[in-house]
Design a protein that fits this description.
- It is a single chain.
- With 228 residues, the chain is of the alpha+beta class.
- The chain has one domain: Aminopeptidase (3-Layer(aba) Sandwich).
- Strands 1, 2, 3, 4, 5, 6, 7 and 8 form an eight-stranded mixed β-sheet that branches.
- 32% of the residues are buried.
């Protein structure tokens, strides 16, 4: 079944992945978090936060779906409205850049392919709006992270390992490290180069999508029995 990427609107908040609707990692100021923040209605906080961004700045998300089922999403905004954006050792985000905060995929199948489709939609939106660059705080995962970290699911606890984007993936799709760090590098994707973003970004995305397709073919050969 084919996938569809659409812009997040004020009316599509309920279609975002459950964890994204309740995530506290980017929305709450880490310096101000205390026991009282545990009593907050996080879904309300996220909806209010995204509504404020969309009303003041415009589109700030892309939603990936298939057959009416949500597969994932990407969220991005000016860094000034992201409370956690100043708390990293590689802060601040460049003045001319939009910050990519969330890239969440709910399916274990074709994760890189779905992620690439969302990044492509984000870049296309920002290029059309004349944005010069997209930046993100990536995370360098360790073997311990991979061993104990939970997989994609609606019930993840918020933390750096569950709410941040893999730095390795960002580099695969054309981001460059502009502020190195062993754990939280800041990466940047230029959107206004003379030769255009497509030559770098679409080439990287195409390679990821090809690799993802080959993986799906291998799975089908290993398990030829259909389901459902």
């Amino acid at each position: 079944m084919s996938t569809l990427v659409t812009g997040v609107t004020l009316d599509s908040f309920d279609q975002l992945p459950t964890h994204t609707r309740r995530c506290r990692f980017w929305v709450l100021d880490p310096k101000a978090e205390n026991s009282s923040s545990d009593a907050l209605d996080l879904e309300f906080e996220n909806e209010a936060w995204l509504s404020m961004i969309m009303l003041e700045w415009g589109s700030c998300g892309q939603l990936l779906s298939s057959g009416g089922r949500t597969l994932g999403c990407a969220l991005y905004s000016p860094p000034g409205v992201v409370p956690r954006s100043t708390s990293f050792p590689t802060s601040p985000v460049s003045a001319d850049a939009v910050l990519l905060t969330t890239l969440r995929i709910e399916s274990e199948l074709d994760r890189e392919g779905h992620s690439a489709s969302l990044i492509q939609a984000v870049v296309a939106d920002l290029v059309n709006r004349g944005v010069r660059a997209l930046e993100a705080f990536g995370i360098r995962r360790t073997a311990e992270d991979d061993r104990v970290g939970p997989k994609a699911t609606a019930d993840l606890t918020c933390s750096d390992t569950t709410c941040m984007i893999d730095a390795d993936f960002l580099e695969k799709v054309g981001f460059d490290v502009v502020a190195p760090h062993h754990r939280y590098p800041r990466l940047r994707l230029e959107l206004d180069r003379d030769h255009g973003w497509k030559e770098d970004v679409e080439s990287a995305l195409e390679q990821l999508l090809i690799a993802a397709s080959l993986t799906m073919v291998e799975i089908e050969h290993k398990d030829p029995v259909g389901v459902g």
